[in-house]
Amino acid sequence: MLRILFASSEAYPLIKTGGLADVSGSLPRALLKLGHDVRILMPAYRDALQNARAAGVKTVATFTLENAVSGDHTVSIMETRLPGSRVKTWLLDCPALFDRPGNPYLDENNQDYADNDLRFLLFSRAAAELGLNRCGLDWQPDVVHCNDWQTGLTPVFLDQLGLQSAAAEQPRPATVFTIHNLAYQGLYGYETFTATQLPANFWHHEALEFHNQFSLIKGGIVYADRVNTVSPTYAREIQSERFGYGLQGLLRHRGEKLSGILNGINDEEWNPGTDAYLMHRYNRRTIAQRTKNKLELQKQLGLKVDASIPLLGFIGRLVEQKGVDWILANINLMLERGAQLVVLGNGEHAFEAALREAAALAPLSIAATIGYNEALAHRIEAASDIFLMPSKFEPCGLNQLYSLRYGAVPLVHNVGGLADTVIDTTASSLEDGSATGFVFDSLARDEPGDIALQTTLGRALDLYTDKPCWQSLQSNGMQQDNSWKQSALKYERLYRAAIADVAGKSPAYLT
Ligand code: ADP
Ligand code: GLC
User: Fold this and answer.
1) Which of 21, 103, 390, 439 qualifies as a FRET site for 115, CA 20 to 30 Å off?
2) How much distance in Å is there from the Cα of 420 to the middle of ligand 1?
């Protein structure tokens, strides 16, 4: 049994902006099932605290973080359970930094909070103190699992503070840092670096400095015992110039300490057989029921109600990463081919406006819901014939996994986790029963993405008319096991490897 402190800036269902919350809300449950003692640490945002109340919340520790982030801060740990599970969850309460409405990172005007650097420095520091069992909780983790730049400094602080505790013959816990998205790095100025009160030699390009900025993600990449990302393909891609954002050299340098582990899904939450958001539940054997969800959705969104029309779905953040521009470039093709498009998402205003405009011009064929809506997301998965994920890069991606489970055939770009989870339909993959979707490869063919998408969309729409063939695609996907079973075991092995690394290192630490 391992004791694991899982530090994350979001965890479903307490608070969610994207896939990180899905992972943080489901991997710890899978680790608990494997018999580990896992605790989630997350900031006590106002909404998260509110959502936790039903499960009961009690203050279990109050302590002062001395000399942390430009001075002393008194904070509390509020203990609850992740709703719907037995996973102990610790909310770091510091009202001045986290008692704010809405999104964990953005204010009401969708702007980053001006003090995000200090908010997550403090969070990272608290995770390190808990990791060293210095907060009066009488619980010493074997490993601290950090996620994304918001926790990037935890391995750094542990390394620093661990030196003192190593001298006191208490080893520091091992650290694992997971990169969910290298595009978000937590870059700040020199003043933020000084606020950490780390020794001056950390301001170095082999440490935390990155092109004259203070890089929080580098903290995790340089100092964690093990670094991983959320698919094997993305782990390779980020070591290349195209996907590495200037960090490819460092990532290559971490060599065998860097690996890729595919995300799993919460298969209770995302199960078409029991999904409370659906009017008509179904499974592989009762797939005919699925059409009723499509008719409901067409009606709800004011589209032409007709089961024979191919329905394309898209759910996601409306940002460059997700290939929204390639979707927009193919809207005419969709209309010419008599398809419908349902979009749910929010993000950049230009994308939101373009999608709204497309829907206004063809209201019977295109529906754009701008906003965040969990119920609608489930209904789109249960209704779409084809689920679009033409991402320019995709560390793992969860929606294609939900689509596979829901019988919405995914059409994806050949990158990251999309490449690792969807098998393109060809004569031979149909024949051997491995085909689960459609994959386009603009990179290998050196073709513009919108054109590559166009060709593959045409191919998918052609095949859609072949019902037996389409049903076998759906059935193949629905049989795929994307639960956490395998991946949680891989994390367990990664934790043990990190622990072995620390054990191997400790003499050097003491000298
Ligand atoms: P990313 O983390 O890059 O946004 P993922 O595919 O890993 O992408 O995960 C996105 C998660 O957020 C999925 O669970 C998806 O259903 C959800 N999601 C994204 N946008 C919305 C939205 N507008 N409404 C509801 N759920 C959304
Ligand atoms: C990130 C990535 C996404 C991944 C998610 C969870 O937000 O963009 O691909 O699935 O994290 O790991």
Assistant:
1) 21
2) 19
- For residue 399, the CA-to-ligand 1 centroid distance in Å is 7
Q: What confidence category does residue 509 fall into, taking pLDDT thresholds of 50, 70 and 90?
A: very low
Q: Whose CA is nearest to atom 26 of ligand 1?
A: 374
Residue ranges per structural domain of the chain: 3-264+485-510, 284-478
Cβ of 395 below 6 Å from ligand 2? yes
**Ligand 2: residue whose CA is nearest its atom 11:** 180
CATH superfamily entry for domain 284-478: Glycogen Phosphorylase B; (3.40.50.2000)
Ligand 2 atom showing the smallest separation from residue 22 Cα: 6
Question: Stretch 36-50: mean pLDDT, rounded?
Answer: 98
State which of 103, 180, 229, 315 you would mutate to test the pocket of ligand 1, scoring each by most atoms of that ligand within 8 A of its C-beta. Answer: 315
Q: What's the CA gap between 53 and 100, in Å, rounded?
A: 16
Question: Is the distance from the beta carbon of residue 344 to the nearest atom of ligand 1 less than 6 Å?
Answer: yes
* Interval 418-442: pLDDT, tens: 999 999 999 999 999 999 999 999 8
Listed in order, strand segments (DSSP E) in 404-456 are 409-413, 438-440
* Cα–Cα distance for residue pair 1/310, rounded to 1 Å: 49
Task: Pick the closest to residue 2 from 41, 28, 20, 22 (CA basis).
Answer: 28
- Residue 79 parent element (H or E): strand 73-81
List the residue whose alpha carbon is closest to atom 12 of ligand 1: 18
Token look-up 């449950």 returns 29
Closest ligand to 418 CA?
2
pLDDT tens-digit profile of 475-500?
999 999 999 999 999 999 999 999 99
Q: Do domains 3-264+485-510 and 284-478 have the same CATH topology?
A: yes
Q: In this model, does residue 91 exceed pLDDT 80?
A: yes
CATH number given to 3-264+485-510: 3.40.50.2000
